[in-house]
Specification:
- The protein is mainly α.
- It has six helices and no strands.
- α1 runs parallel beside α3, α3 packs antiparallel against α4 and α4 packs antiparallel against α6.
- The protein is elongated and about 50 Å long.
Length: about 160
């Protein structure tokens, strides 16, 4: 594949990840302001931190998925399927937590997401180790989000 074509794969892959973020924002923008009014656990960051972190994570996810897409591995389709499923679940989690205020359901979904992301990291890592490593910050953030979700659920019922 030509370098110009590869560049487009990277651009499109990152844009797909950002599209999920944009859809999440469109569906929950009114509800996110209510999050500021909730009691939060210790270590909860200021709201400005979330878009910065998610921007970095979506970029890393998009780049890593492009690396896998461009690989010649026979395992890339199942790996990218896990990636796609966890992206969809990320969108669903945002709806559950912010829009529908289903904190316990969102927590259960978050645990499923952590398991999927671990699977994705392993699958990506078997194909191209760097693609797996690029998603470790995402896993760490999901673990932190699990802590925040639990704390928010306990403190706000």
């Amino acid at each position: 594949m030509r370098k110009k074509s590869k560049a487009w794969v990277y651009i499109i892959s990152v844009l797909i990840a950002y599209a999920v973020a944009l859809l999440s924002l469109l569906f929950t923008k009114d509800s996110m302001q209510q999050y500021a009014l909730l009691d939060k656990p210790p270590l909860a960051p200021d709201s400005i931190v979330f878009p910065i972190v998610w921007g970095i994570l979506y970029t890393l996810m998009g780049i890593s998925s492009a690396i896998i897409y461009l690989s010649h591995s026979r395992q890339k389709k199942p790996a990218l399927t896990v990636y796609a499923v966890q992206l969809v679940l990320t969108f669903v989690w945002t709806l559950l937590f912010f829009k529908l205020k289903l904190r316990l359901a969102s927590l259960v979904l978050l645990v499923v997401m952590v398991i999927l992301v671990i699977s994705m990291i392993v699958r990506f890592g078997r194909i191209k180790p760097i693609a797996g490593y690029m998603n470790i910050p995402y896993l760490l953030w999901l673990l932190f989000a699990t802590y925040l979700n639990v704390g928010t659920y306990i403190l706000n019922g």
